[in-house]
Amino acid sequence: MTSEGASANGKTQESTPPLRVGVIGLGWAGQQHLKAYRDRAEVEICALAAMEEDLLEELGEEFGVENRFTRWEQLLELEELDAVSIAVPTFLHAPIAVAALGRGLHVLTEKPIARDAQEGRQMVEAARTAGRVLDVAFNHRRRGDVQELKKVITSGELGRAYYAKASWLRRSGIPVLGSWFTNKQMSGGGPLADLGVHVLDWALHLLGEPRAVAVSASTYAELGPRGRGGMARYSAMNSEHPFEVEDFASAFIRLEDGGTLVIESSWATYREQKDLLDFMVYGSDGGAELRAVGATDAPVGQLRVFTEKDGQDADYELTAQPGTAHQGVVSDFLDAIAAGPEEWPQHDGSVALARAEIIDACYRSAEEQREVRLDHV
Hints:
The chain has 377 residues and is an alpha/beta fold. The chain has ten helices and 21 strands. It has a nine-stranded mixed beta sheet. Strands 5-4-3-6-7-8 form a six-stranded parallel beta sheet, with helices on both faces.
């Protein structure tokens, strides 16, 4: 439906109606989505859903949203919706996304796409059937330092990238011991599923999206089961569960171009106190390294490029601006929707599903203590 308004010359002209969005889940991530939507003039936030009634009322007032629900099913019944953001525990991603897509809504969900690749496939298939956008929030690939390093690698300055290593490591970072995070059935996994999927995403993004063909992984649960390594940074459902996931994971990933990617992720391990987010790559003509000590608290990390000129070392450092984080995630989602129906099939969640397939293979490799080929997943 369109509305008419008067132009500067007095003639009437049609104006585009706002894109009407709802946000499901109002923890830290959901609030980032809200702030990003508020900054876009073409968007109207018309509904919120969350279990925490106090938070629902508070944010509803702050963002001027009258439609507030304690059940996500109620939000999806609104006829005026065009799109939804999903920022809830992982076990709810698939049921909410499939239901929303089935109602013809575009969907942006937090990472990982789902608890496993099987659920992720259901979401991708639902997006294809509905002909709608399904996007997954990988905000760390939108860091300014990651984007600056991407330019270097894409330019060919480093030659053929044949080996890379990436990690996100915490010393005491298990998010809420005894919550859904540490319940295998609800979360899908520990730091490999939570942080490692980010690591995998920015690493493959930097390398130009080579296909993974095999993985060999190990997982460990040395601190969590003893009640060590916990934190209270993130909100979570107040439930009591034994520690059923890993607290450290490492994976050796063979790539189709003959290259190798090694990833590490930890919630808890005895190392320096500050978190580390990093990426290192060796190429045939040079190498590069990104180190963000403090991880997400360090909006820009140290960037170094290692190369030579005329037989002499010609290493240098790069500077970068802070990235766009969730603002960039939401902006890309809105741009994909605005591109129109002909472009929507290009945004069906396939990239996030490929990440989930690799994570699944890593868990299988760790459990069976063998290399797992992706074509057998």
